[in-house]
Amino acid sequence: MKNALTLAALIAIGTPALAQEDEVVSFGRALAESNCASCHAIGREDESAHPEAVPFRELSERYPIDALEEAFAEGIQVGHPDMPMFQAEPDQIEAILAYIETVQ
């Protein structure tokens, strides 16, 4: 019984953190859908609409994901040739990277 109460307490403590993490990931997905999905595959199985746009699920094969933070902060200017300039705010960067991590 004591172990069950301890487990319940740990779950209750962790639940707000998980909910906040889910919100960050959801925000990142929404940003990816509105800013990136017209060219990039942003999910685990979809195909990129642009032939030179790397699927998000393959980004970690090419770059350390945390290294993308600086690129987002400075404005991504590399990628496929007709990639639009995209500069993100710190909370947007955190959310996008959190989402990208979920599809690796």
UniProtKB/TrEMBL annotation:
<keyword id="KW-0408">Iron</keyword>
<keyword id="KW-0349">Heme</keyword>
<dbReference type="InterPro" id="IPR036909">
    <property type="entry name" value="Cyt_c-like_dom_sf"/>
</dbReference>
<dbReference type="InterPro" id="IPR009056">
    <property type="entry name" value="Cyt_c-like_dom"/>
</dbReference>
<keyword id="KW-0479">Metal-binding</keyword>
<keyword id="KW-0732">Signal</keyword>
<feature type="domain" description="Cytochrome c">
    <location>
        <begin position="23"/>
        <end position="104"/>
    </location>
</feature>
<feature type="signal peptide">
    <location>
        <begin position="1"/>
        <end position="19"/>
    </location>
</feature>
<protein>
    <submittedName>
        <fullName>C-type cytochrome</fullName>
    </submittedName>
</protein>
<dbReference type="Pfam" id="PF00034">
    <property type="entry name" value="Cytochrom_C"/>
</dbReference>
